[in-house]
Structures are given as structure tokens and as C-alpha cells.
Write a structure and sequence with these properties.
- This protein is about 20% helix and about 20% strand.
- It contains 10 helices and 14 strands.
- The structure holds D-malate, manganese (II) ion and zinc ion (ZN).
């Protein structure tokens, strides 16, 4: 299984257009010390040629240009237009994960995989599905919680991948009229050889059962929105704490900002763990920050746009992708 991080910033991207917090200011003045990032999205493929988009961000246009996509087969005029992705899988209906659906409206056909709670919000609240359907035929395949679903290629063949959605703690989007189970999920992608990748870009708490679920994955892409619980409060740009926004902070929940965060729990997992959906205020975005050192010192990775992973099949001695592999220039596409 191949996985590419298309975007690793939270909503607003990095730097965020209206923000001059220390990290955003550095991303503008010295981008080598705080690399700009687009809004969170991932692509997953069984064969490295045909890709599923996981979340459709407002940056989808430039993100798709990163993928090593096949050219359309040579031939008649009906092939002039060619949709190079096989489908869109969603974790939630937040704007940063779904606005890209409308931006893909030039596709004649689009298949979306989402829970009933997520598709309800896209149908009734944001209306992104009805808006997109004015331009394209959008079919939704329901993801029932904890049931693996086969992902199909646009020609109907099996892709070799399955996806299983599981509910994670958190709140539905602010504009959602309901609060149904499955409004926010993590996803487990598996291939026929047993390679497993977990994608959990939004998660309000990390309890033992969730940790046990993530333990089966050789690659875990996890919510790195905030370093500390009071990050926005301390910067004077918000009054809600991380967990009030459905994001468990990396560093900690306590007022000392050091204990009970995702870092110490994820560091116990056997798989390779990469933070993504990183908010522009998060000091881990600064390459030489103590927070970045803490993440890397614990053996975890701060995700960057263009990182590409080959996810190994589950098996003795090869459960974890190697650092050398993902840092190799032949594998990391920038
Ligand atoms: C979130 O991750 O909490 C949401 O995307 C917030 C937002 O869209 O403003
Ligand atoms: Mn978000
Ligand atoms: Zn900022």
C-alpha cells in the first residue's frame, strides 16, 4: 500500500492568510525553519498508480498535481477529459475536509465514501453534495461503523483496498444540525497483503480502546492540531481549549502543558506514527523548536506535505515503516 500526505495543515493552511502568530510569521520570513503546508488530505493506493483521495480539501487542485497519476490512455476524443482519482473517502464533513468536493465538480462522476452522519451533513447542512450534483453525478457509498468496505476503481474493479470507519470522540461541525454517531471517524485502510494504515485527522480523546485499534496499523496518521490544550487562549486568538474543539493536544491536557497528551500514548504503538492536520499555531511546525524535538525524540514524525510511505504488510520484524524509507528523496516527494 502506498500513502501520500497531500496536505498536513489544519483548516486555514500554514501560514494562515490572516494570522501573524509566531509560527505563521516564521513561515513567511524564513520558510526553511517553518515549512508552509496545505490543508490536510491524504491519498491511498494499492498499486501506486490508482489513488483514492482521503478528504477533499480546499487545496485539492494543487494537491492532486503532486500525485504520480497515470496519463489518460491515448485514443479518441472521449478521453480528453480523464478523472485521475478513483473516489473520495471522508472522515467528517468539516469544511477543510469537504470543500474540495465542489472543486472536483468538473468530474462527470464522483464516488464518495462516507458515514450516514457525514453524508447527511453534506446533503442538508453545507449542501456540498447537492451543489456538486448540479455539475456531476455524485454517488455515495455508506461507511457503516466498524464494517470494512471494499474500495472500487472507477471501472468497477476491486482496488485491492478496504476501508473501515470507526467513531472517534469529538463534536460534529458547528454547522451540523444533528449529532449522530459517526459524524467524525478514523479510517483503517487495508490491502490484501495485510498492510494497514490508520488515518485519524480529528480526534478529541485517546482512550485505551482507540489506542488498541491503532496498534494494528503499521502507519498511523494522527491528529496533531494543537501542541497544548490552551494554545489559542494563550495566543489571545480564541477562547476554546483543544479538547473543546475535538482535538486531543500532542503535549498535554494539563495546565502545565506536559502530561496526558497524545504523544506519550502514541509513542507506545508498534507502528510508524505521523502527526497531520497541524494547526498553524502549533510550535511543532517550527523545525528547531523544543516541541519538534520532543516529538522526534519520542520516535514520532511531524508530517509534511509530499511525504510518501510504502506501508509494509503486517509481519514479524516489518510492522513499522523505516525512517530511512520515508526520508529517502526517492520516496519523499516534495
Ligand atoms: C476542526 O478541525 O476543528 C475544524 O476543521 C475547524 C474549522 O473548520 O474551522
Ligand atoms: Mn479541521
Ligand atoms: Zn498562525
Amino acid at each position: 500500500m502506498q500513502v501520500m500526505l497531500l496536505g498536513t495543515a489544519a483548516g486555514g493552511g500554514f501560514p494562515q492568510w490572516n494570522c501573524w502568530c509566531p509560527a505563521c510569521a516564521l513561515a513567511r520570513s524564513d520558510p526553511a525553519r517553518a515549512r508552509p503546508r496545505t490543508q490536510s488530505s491524504v491519498a491511498v493506493s494499492a498499486d501506486g498508480r490508482r489513488w483514492f483521495l482521503v478528504n477533499a480539501s480546499p487545496d485539492v487542485r494543487e494537491q492532486l498535481a503532486r500525485l504520480p497519476l497515470p496519463s489518460p490512455p491515448a485514443g479518441g476524443s472521449r478521453l480528453t477529459r480523464h478523472v485521475p482519482i478513483e473516489g473520495v473517502v471522508l472522515t467528517d464533513a468539516e469544511l477543510d475536509h469537504s470543500l474540495g468536493i465542489a472543486l472536483l465538480r468538473e468530474a462527470r462522476r464522483l464516488r464518495v465514501y462516507a458515514t450516514a452522519a457525514v453524508s447527511d451533513t453534506l446533503e442538508r447542512d453545507s449542501r456540498l453534495l447537492p451543489v456538486t450534483r448540479a455539475f456531476a453525478d455524485v454517488a455515495v457509498t455508506e461507511l457503516v461503523l466498524t464494517v470494512p468496505v471494499a474500495l472500487h476503481l472507477t471501472d468497477g474493479a476491486e482496488s485491492g483496498l478496504t476501508v473501515e470507519a470507526f467513531a472517534v470522540p469529538g463534536d460534529p461541525p458547528r454547522f451540523a444540525s444533528g449529532n449522530l454517531a459517526g459524524h467524525t471517524v478514523g479510517l483503517l485502510f487495508r490491502d490484501g497483503a495485510g498492510a494497514t494504515c490508520a488515518y485519524v485527522p480529528a480526534c478529541g480523546a485517546l482512550d485505551d480502546s482507540l489506542l488498541a485499534r491503532l496498534a494494528c496499523a503499521s502507519l498511523v496518521l494522527f491528529d496533531g492540531t494543537f501542541w497544548s490544550a490552551d494554545e489559542l487562549v494563550a495566543l489571545g486568538i480564541g477562547d476554546r481549549r483543544a479538547q473543546d474543539m475535538g482535538h486531543v493536544p500532542i503535549g498535554g491536557l494539563g495546565d502545565d502543558g506536559t502530561r496526558g497528551g497524545s504523544l506519550e500514548r502514541l509513542a507506545t504503538l508498534p507502528g510508524w506514527v505521523v502527526y497531520t492536520h497541524i494547526n498553524n499555531t502549533n510550535p511543532v511546525l517550527i523545525e528547531d523548536s523544543p516541541q519538534r524535538s520532543a516529538v522526534e525524540g519520542a520516535g514520532l514524525t511531524v508530517g509534511e506535505d509530499g511525504m510518501r510511505f510504502t506501508v509494509p504488510a503486517t509481519g514479524a520484524g516489518e510492522r513499522r515503516a523505516s525512517a530511512a524509507e520515508h526520508r529517502s528523496p526517492t520516496v519523499v516527494v516534495r
